[in-house]
Structures are given as C-alpha cells and as structure tokens.
Q: What sequence folds into this?
C-alpha cells in the first residue's frame, strides 16, 4: 500500500487513489455521532449558501456546521460534537442531516473530483478506518490533513494522519509527543481558553479520543448531493 501525505485544500485537490480527508477539530469527529444518534441520512455540502437553501427547501432536515468556525447562518446546530451529544436522539433520530464545514467538507468535495474513493478521517474513527483499509488493501491511499479552514496546516490533523499511517504500515508513532504537539498549540488553546462562545473545551477532549467507533464513513455521490455512507469494518 502506497501512502501519500497531503495537507489543506490544495492537497485534497491533488489526492489520488483512496483519499482520507482528515478533520479532527471538528467535522469528522461529528460524523459518527449523527449516525450514533439515529440519523437516517447524512449529506455534506461545501457551499454554505447552497446548504442554507437546501435547509429552507427541507425545513424538517437538520442543518449543522460552520463557516470559518462561526455557526452557520440559519443552522439548527453548529459543528460541536459536545452539542451534538447533548442534543442526542431527540434531535437526530430518523432525521436527515446536512453538514457544512470550512475544512473537512470542502476537502471532501475537492477530493471527489479525482479519487477512486473518499473517506472521512479523525481520531475517534481512525482504528476502524485503518482496519477497513487494510482489509480492502487499495494500491494508493492519500492522507489529507485539512488544517484550519483548509488553509493552514494544524497539528491535530497532521498527527491524526501520522496515527493512521502508523496503523496501516507500522510506522513510528509517539502518542505522548503527538498529544503535546496538539494540546499546547494555539489551535487547541482557542477551545481550552474559551476564546469564542462556540468553541467548547470539551470538544477537544472528545476529538482526541481514539477508537470510539467501529464503522468507517465513505462519501458517495447521490444524484447531485454527497452522501455519507456508514460501512462496517
């Protein structure tokens, strides 16, 4: 298995083979929670205005996400896994979700143009994803660490890419060094220091957990939309 490393939106556009689009804080730490709490369908939409118009056309759908970190206009929920957990089945059971984010979802949309398959990546689902990829054994896997708003590399996504590469190939992995790189960086500190009311410290705690979910999540085109498909590992 050939492992390629890329970063940010430019890297997602260059991805080849099977792409893993990594967004730890917070998009693809949220994805498995939607399904855990009973969502019947989850779509991702990179265009914020289109996501809002889809919500207006389908008022019973759940619009979740952000634009440059700020909760999306007319949304039902932002991009916080902790808020998703508090909302739970009451909000998500048997509902359709539209998810819009500035890094992970835009990266998925870019990678879909050239890649054979596209998966979401984060620490909470990394073990299941790696197990699935090892079993399917694609020739090339591109790990794309999306970074902050898809523009600037960030340690949580880069270290998650390191971890997935370690699971796939046995490459070196230092969990303490990775934790220190992430937790002391300004990116995590924005949450931990409560710089904005929509950035919750507990989101960092959740997003850095490993092995919480036993499914992988692939993005597939359904008509004109991109749907998240839950796959057993």
A:
């Amino acid at each position: 298995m050939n492992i390629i490393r890329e970063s940010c939106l430019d890297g997602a556009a260059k991805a080849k083979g099977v792409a893993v689009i990594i967004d730890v804080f917070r998009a693809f730490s949220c994805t498995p929670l939607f399904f855990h709490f009973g969502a019947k369908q989850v779509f991702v939409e990179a265009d914020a205005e289109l996501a809002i118009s889809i919500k207006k056309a389908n008022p019973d759908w759940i619009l979740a996400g952000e634009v440059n970190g700020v909760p999306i206009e007319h949304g039902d929920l932002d991009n916080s896994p902790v808020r998703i957990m508090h909302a739970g089945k009451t909000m998500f059971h048997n509902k359709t979700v539209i998810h819009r984010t500035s890094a992970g979802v835009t990266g998925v949309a870019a990678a879909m143009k050239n890649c054979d398959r596209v998966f979401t990546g984060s620490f909470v689902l990394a073990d299941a994803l790696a197990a699935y990829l090892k079993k399917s054994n694609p020739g090339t896997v591109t790990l794309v660490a999306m970074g902050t708003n898809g523009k600037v590399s960030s340690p949580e996504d880069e270290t998650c890419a390191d971890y997935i590469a370690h699971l796939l190939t046995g490459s070196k992995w230092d969990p303490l060094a990775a934790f220190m790189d992430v937790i002391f960086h300004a990116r995590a500190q924005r949450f931990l220091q409560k710089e904005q009311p929509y950035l919750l410290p507990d989101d960092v705690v959740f997003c850095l957990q490993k092995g919480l979910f036993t499914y992988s999540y692939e993005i597939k085109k359904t008509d004109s939309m991109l749907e998240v498909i839950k796959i057993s590992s």
Residues 155-169 form the longest helix (15 residues).
